[in-house]
Amino acid sequence: MAQKGSPQLMYGLNRSFILQCIREHGTISRSRISRLTGISMPTVTGIVDRLVSEDIVKETGKGESTGGRRPTLVCYNLDYGRVIGVDLGSEKVKIAVADLGGHIITLGEKSIWSWDDRSKLEKVIEGIEEVLREIPNYDPLRSALGVGVPGVVDYKSGSVSFAPLFPSWDNYPLREILETELKIPAYLDNDVYAAAWGEYSFGAAKEAKSSLFILVSRGIGSGLITDGKIYRGATGAAGEIGYTLVDRSNLHMNFGEKGCLESLCSTSAMASKAKEAVKRGESPLLKQLCNDDISALTPEIVCQAAIQNDPVASAIVEESREYLAVAIANAVSIVNPEMIVLGGDLAGLPDVEELFVEPLKALIKSHVPHFPTITLSSLTTNAVIYGAIVFALDLIQERLVGTAI
């Protein structure tokens, strides 16, 4: 049995290496594929020819001659299929459709607000189904789904073991449900891991050997990429920086209560502090900017007021970035990353470089043994979406290899 399977196994491995090479290098010749992969020229030619016949790869013209005939160039057929990336939130879901190069074709948001987790999931599925119906010539056999979930996810089984924003999801078989309802393969992972992977694949951390992505939104989390892999920890919960304590008095509080990092400096914490200040009559400017509607106060408005030197808003921003600086300095001392990438809703705030990024660098620099590059996410608020897209692209490639063996 082993001998009979060996040629099939070798073909599958070679096909996988060749597909990955074409995917990474774009337009490329068969001879260069052979040099880069170490696979013999006859084997490369045979596999590439088959990929062309299957419409997975297409020939794009002639390359430059190095002395003989001009080589025929091939590239990944980006329109062979489509992938769907999903950024799942507690009140809204972002859904993107991308080609096989990861280029986003459509991106939209859908409200999923409900008191009931099951109703939220039904709205998510409805939103994805609406998107699938709009894809021209949609073929489920050429599609895959990637999802970033705000919680602890077993990426192998696709079950969610802990999700504070979806309290009923205790060992919840989310991937199984999505695959059953949507009839396409799905890959699920923690949303911050997805963001870190998106930044590593498409964004600011693309050239970094180790990078720590810190997501600051309604919650706070982090994802560490080192040597091209996501660091997950013993139970898949590594990076929950939002639960770190910044004062010993917090030891007497329960897990996740006020006093943990995200209760002090998340974007929702900024908005909550601003609302309390306006209720106390402390900031006429904040009251004016929200048109006397305290419920409409957002972190964006807080930053707008801070730029206008409003003392209350400036104090809220200062306190938030100082708590964040403490957390980042501690993380840098522990994991020694080459790069820190700041993302999430924070990345979309007005004047974020002036209000957060540059002051954070100054605060942290003198408190760490090795100062990393600190930068804003180049994917801004879409890092999770891009990571989910990469998850789906990897699923597509597995299918393209597996169906041919």
From TrEMBL:
Domain HTH marR-type: 17-57
Database matches in InterPro entries: ATPase_NBD (IPR043129), HTH_MarR-typ (IPR000835), ROK (IPR000600), WH-like_DNA-bd_sf (IPR036388), WH_DNA-bd_sf (IPR036390)
Keyword field: Kinase, Transferase
Gene3D superfamilies assigned: 3.30.420.40, Winged helix-like DNA-binding domain superfamily/Winged helix DNA-binding domain
Top-rank taxon, per record: Bacteria
MF terms in GO: kinase activity
Family matches, as Pfam families: MarR (PF01047), ROK (PF00480)
Family: Belongs to the ROK (NagC/XylR) family.
Protein name: Glucokinase
Organism: Candidatus Hakubella thermalkaliphila
